[in-house]
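Hi W.,

Here's what went into the run:
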Amino acid sequence: MTDRDVVELAPAGTQPEYHFPPYASTVARSPRMPLIRLLKTRTERTGPVFGHGFIREGDNDLTAHGESDPIGERILVHGRVLNEDGQPVRGALVEVWQANSAGRYRHKVDTYDAPLDPNFHGGGRMMTDEQGRYWFKSIKPGPYPWGNHHNAWRPSHIHFSLFGAGILSRLVTQMYFPGDPLQPLDSIFNSIPDEAARQRLISHLDMDRSESNFLLAYNWDIVLRGRSDTPFEEGNR
Amino acid sequence: MSNDAVPIPTSSQTVGPYFRIGLDGMIERTPGSSLEAPGMIAIRGRVLDRDGVAVPDAMLEFWSASTEPIALNAELAIAGCPTGFRRVATGGDGEFSVVIEGPAPPVSNEDESQGLHFEVLVFARGLLRQLLTRVYLGDGESSKTDPLLLTIPEERRATLIAKADHRCADVFHWTIRLQGTNETVFFGW
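Here's what came out:
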């Protein structure tokens, strides 16, 4: 093994630190011992590849998972998944989940007394196409209170989970909406030290893809770790 | 990416407490995930925080590049988790159990000295970015030759080694400690 076989660290300030006391749950759950540098072996150069059989038709329309339309502002969220060379990541599995328009999750742990919407479940998934594009239809999630500190409110956001080429390209993150005054008050959003990196989590209103009398569109591109020359040997997996 | 000369990987945010809404499908769909099938192993354990308190809302993903594909009903295989990959979630007592194709000995020269292992990703409320670790299937031998284990201070290596069950050779036990005494080794990335 030589030095070049060590897994690179993320550019400074672009990823949150594990220990970030303003987000109280990090305090007892973040490691304190030094992180060890990881060698780049076959395990790190490869990753799972998901078949299209994984996705069912309609999985990317969160407004169609109930018996009738969910309540809320209809939205289309779309964008591209790119690698560090700016090339599209094709066949990337994208999974999303979110609160309803009142800020309530359909989950037993969520005790916020905002109403559940019988027509909104809040989960969806899709795969990127040949240009690395993804899109899904939903309703805009509402902000909600959480127990981090007195009067703490999460800005509206949608959770994203992605797989790219190789296990180290794995990303779980949250997409935010433009013009939300709760963002600068949110300790999860603020956990990213670099201001520009933080701003890149905010989607853009896209009037070109918005549909008159029907829905507003938001555009959000995602960059996964990894480069185009990354050997990706597990074609049949 | 309009003005970015060099695309920078998107920042991570916590998976939060409600991830099952979007991520449960893969936890449910694990065809062939029975220890009855040949070549399958199980890793069981708990995820604990600084105070030894159970983490009941963690999600773990296991990956091995060196598993042998196991013959499955083709339709199930295409809908389920890819070979060598599994996602599990912890229960109310922080417990988890993953059944997965056992790793085969490494194939390339470069990796020959590696012990049998999985890469493990740890997600939870309170983790702003997933933790990256490895679990080695314990025979005591890998800690003497594995090039990565050899870079780790000796007294911490045991945190990455799952112990074989004394009754069932296909079952291993491994505890993940996020912080504190016997804190699991995590990697920078």
